[in-house]
Amino acid sequence: MSFDQQILEASKKHPRPARIFAYGTAGFRMKADLLPSVVFRVGLLAAARSRKMNGQSIGVMITASHNPPEDNGVKLVDPYGDMLEATWEPHATAFANAKTDEELVEEFNKLHTSLKINSSAPARVIYARDTRASGPTLVDCLVDALTATNTEYTDYKLLTTPQLHYLVRCTNTKGTQYEYGDVSETGYYEKLSTAFKQAMKNAKSKGTITVDCANGVGGPKLRELVKYLPSQAEGGVDIKVVNEDVHKPDNLNSQCGADFVKTQQRAPPSSKAAPGDRCASLDGDADRIVYYFIDEDSNFRLLDGDRIATLAAAFLGELGEKSGLASKLSIGVVQTAYANGASTKFITENLKLPIQCTPTGVKYLHHAAQRFDIGVYFEANGHGTVLFSPLALKTIATHEPQSPSQADALATLTAATELINQTVGDALSDLLLVEVILAHKAWDPANWLSTYTDYPNRLVRVEVGNRNVFKTEDAERRLTEPKHAQARIDELVGKYTKGRSFARASGTEDAVRVYAEAATRAEADDLAQKVAGIVKQFGGLALSK
Ligand SMILES: CC(=O)N[C@H]1[C@@H](OP(=O)(O)O)O[C@H](CO)[C@@H](O)[C@@H]1O
Ligand SMILES: [Mg+2]
């Protein structure tokens, strides 16, 4: 079957701007007015991917996460709910960059030939979007591609990114032994709330958690989730939703949200939190979360992804011990080079757990975490989850507790496996997990913070002529190119007490990021500035655009 004519006709409606596109860590992301042709072409790829996967449903999420309101983006979700397989990213890039409609058809056919995709096979796509004003127009572009390729589709309208990942997995596992949940948004809330109630059985939450939803899709979705959860008096948690205005598009991620809090190291200016109040911020598509509070001396205290990772790893380790499963389940933590060195030390020395460091980008962490029975992974910026291997799930499900206390711990562990989104980092699921853990430990955020002290650190963004000259090894911790740059950094780092620093090209912005840690704030700042200086020096000439 040939779709040539249909694709040609439809593609004419979505002319490609003179731009080079690249499918990166976050899919395609840019100013929304540049995206119509990109989204159309991603739709073609989704159809091809579905056909390649024997008609399993592929997800398409239209979002630009924490970016400003005028941006948008698109990314694909694979049948099991994880991100698009990396080998397909270049195909997305090739489709997006095809110069003419004819060239696009050629790329489409070339892919079908080289990967032996049967174009008569059924193709299925499910999609959703965040609250951005440009979303509906981009959905129209997507639908044009799905129609042109005779693809069946379901429009889930507004969802958080992790909700779409959940639905993709549910759709494709329905009726199998791996069934993940009911194929509906309601199914998502029911799964989380049932697990949450079970996990809270032997715990009592104190105080209120105030959740800043970045004025994004997380707001209405958290409000909905709360309807399914017991109140604090009924054994649940008191959740207060703020920054949930999705009707004024300009407010999205503006002066609030996880990215604002993490990069500015302060609470949203609108926050009315008193010292000690527990606060959290989601990002624009609710796949990231960070916690924070104001301490007794009025200092802002951040509890970021590293803190969530250590909290979750410690708790799951304890549950393993208490349920009598410790010897049967290996727990490991996956971090990137941006994890604070103090968290790495705490995990190794106090929790005595193995750590793996991967390059930046959730797909790397996710894959590494799959190698443990229980793999805890978080980026410092708050994106992460915990993965339970099929064997771990079976071990937990078939374990016979030897005492009532073992039974309690086992029930909580079982609930955690249901509560934690297994497809992708999910701010709503992570929120409930942290709340459960704090309730079990009877901890306030200050207790949580006191587990270890972060090393002073600084992250700077350096604009250079050509960031592509920077090549790395050892999970991005060392530069292999430009020649001599790493030797210069090493020499510098050696001069600082507890110094650590690395530079790498960003995958999402046209810049190089420099990270530095040292014994004091001033030294960390100084080291970062000096390494930034080296990066500038080696930064290459600007490419003619
Ligand atoms: C230091 C940092 O926070 N980097 C972020 C950022 O990647 P860069 O490649 O550093 O631009 O965006 C990624 C996608 O959202 C996210 O996965 C990652 O953690
Ligand atoms: Mg996000």
Automatic annotation (TrEMBL):
SUPFAM superfamilies: Phosphoglucomutase, C-terminal domain, Phosphoglucomutase, first 3 domains. Belongs to the phosphohexose mutase family. Its cofactor is Mg(2+). It holds the Pfam family PGM_PMM_IV. The keyword Chaperone does not apply. Keywords: Carbohydrate metabolism, Cell wall biogenesis/degradation, Isomerase, Magnesium, Metal-binding, Phosphoprotein. Mg(2+) binds at residues 65, 283, 285, 287. Its EC number is 5.4.2.3. InterPro entries: A-D-PHexomutase_a/b/a-I, A-D-PHexomutase_a/b/a-I/II/III, A-D-PHexomutase_C, A-D-PHexomutase_C_sf, A-D-PHexomutase_CS, AMG1_II, AMG1_III, PAGM. This is Phosphoacetylglucosamine mutase. Substrate binds at residues 379-381, 504-508, 513. Pathway: Nucleotide-sugar biosynthesis; UDP-N-acetyl-alpha-D-glucosamine biosynthesis; N-acetyl-alpha-D-glucosamine 1-phosphate from alpha-D-glucosamine 6-phosphate (route I): step 2/2. The keyword Glycoprotein does not apply. Residues 56-85, 97-175 form the Alpha-D-phosphohexomutase alpha/beta/alpha domain. It comes from Viridothelium virens (Speckled blister lichen). GO terms for molecular function: magnesium ion binding; phosphoacetylglucosamine mutase activity. Binds 1 Mg(2+) ion per subunit.
